[in-house]
Amino acid sequence: MCGIAGIFAYSPVNQSLYDALTVLQHRGQDAAGIVTEKDGDFFLRKSNGLVKDVFRTRHMTRLAGNMGIAHVRYPTAGTSSSAESQPFYVNSPYGIVLAHNGNLTNAHGLSKSLYQSDLRHTNTTSDSEVLLNVFAHELQVQGKLQPNEEDIFAAVTGVHNRCRGAYAVVAMISSHGMVAFRDCFGIRPIVYGERKNQEGKTEYMFASESVALDALGFKRVRELDPGEAMYVDNKGILHSKVCAKFASLRPCIFEHVYFARPDSIIDGISVYKARLRMGETLADKILKLRPEHEIDVVMPIPDTSRTSALQLANRLGVKYREGFIKNRYIGRTFIMPGQQLRKKSVKQKLNPIGLEFKGKNVLLVDDSIVRGTTCQEIIQMARDAGAKKVFFASAAPAVRYPNVYGIDMPSASELIAHGKTEKEIEEVIGCDWLVYQDLEDLISCVQVDGNTAQEFDCSVFNGKYITGDVDEAYFAQLELNRADGNKKKKLDASYDGMMAIHNDNSTE
Ligand SMILES: O=P(O)(O)OC[C@H]1O[C@H](OP(=O)(O)OP(=O)(O)O)[C@H](O)[C@@H]1O
Ligand SMILES: NC(=O)CC[C@H](N)C(=O)O
Ligand SMILES: [Mg+2]
Question: Among 30, 46, 100, 169, which residue has the most ligand 2 atoms within 8 Å of its CB, making it the best to mutate?
Answer without folding.
Answer: 100
